[in-house]
Amino acid sequence: MTRLYDGFLKSLGGPKEADGVVTFGGEANYLIHWRLSYLQAASILLKSEHVPRVVMPVAYLQRHALELALKDLIHLARAVKEQEDALSQPRSPQHGPHKPVKGHVLRELMNLLTQALSNVQVELPSAVADLVTLFEKSEILETREGDTETFPERWRYALMSKGGHEAFSSVDPGRAEELPIRQRQEQMEAFFEAHLTTQGGLLDVLFSRFYFASRKREEALSPAGSVPEG
């Protein structure tokens, strides 16, 4: 994870610290900082000798990094679709900024991503389904009424409630559970490196198509049929 974070993120110009004050934003790619920094935070905590004491924050950081990655990919795939569709009518008005993708249930987000990728003829990497299946195993819980519900907020709150059910504890005091915390981290880091930080990965493919379609549209709109070098 150190190589993934330091080599990739620092090359973009990440946050800096001086005299106890962190400066962030500006020219740094904050979209990448968000998802990658949560995963890096989990990695740092996992190096502690007190992992059992911080298992809830680690689990939250891992699943939030995955949630943000899914949402970023959904936005980008939708943007690719919009730009490529606009090539047939380059002078048509562009849509405004996409609304943020709402929701926190990982499987629902994966389904949205699957559809968005299908619209641009890209397959969902199997690693995404593997991660969602791994993570949701610990988020599908039985309520007091005997129903099963997905609780993505489990790692954030001690008490939870959904759909009018009576609030109950996120940890069952009468039942021990096992959480493969390091397996989750390893699979997340492998996914990030293969598809979010590597040339030829899913993020790179989508960005390339978005950039190509945007440039083609600019060329079609320019009087001379070309755009300035940028």
Outline the structure in words.
The structure is a single chain. By secondary structure, the protein is mostly helical. It has 2 domains: 2-138 and 179-221; 139-178, no CATH class. It has helices at 2-12, 30-46, 55-86, 106-118, 126-136, 181-195, 202-221, and strands at residues 16-18, 21-23, 140-142, 148-150, 159-160, 168-169. The strands form 3 sheets. A two-stranded antiparallel sheet has the order 1-2. Strands 3-4 form a two-stranded antiparallel ribbon. Helix 2 packs antiparallel against helix 3, helix 2 packs antiparallel against helix 6 (181-195) and helix 3 packs parallel to helix 4 (106-118). The chain is globular and about 70 Å long. The mean pLDDT is 84.
Main sheet properties: 2 strands, antiparallel
Helix content: 40-55%
Number of domains: 2
Question: Which H/E pattern describes the elements?
Answer: HEEHHHHEEEEHH
Main sheet: strand order: 1-2
| Radius of gyration, in angstroms, nearest whole number | 21 Å
* Count of alpha and pi helical runs: 7
Could you tell me how far the N terminus lies from the C terminus, measured between alpha carbons in angstroms? 33 Å
The shape, in one word, is globular
Could you tell me the strand content as a percent range?
5-15%
* Number of DSSP strand runs: 6
Mean pLDDT: 84
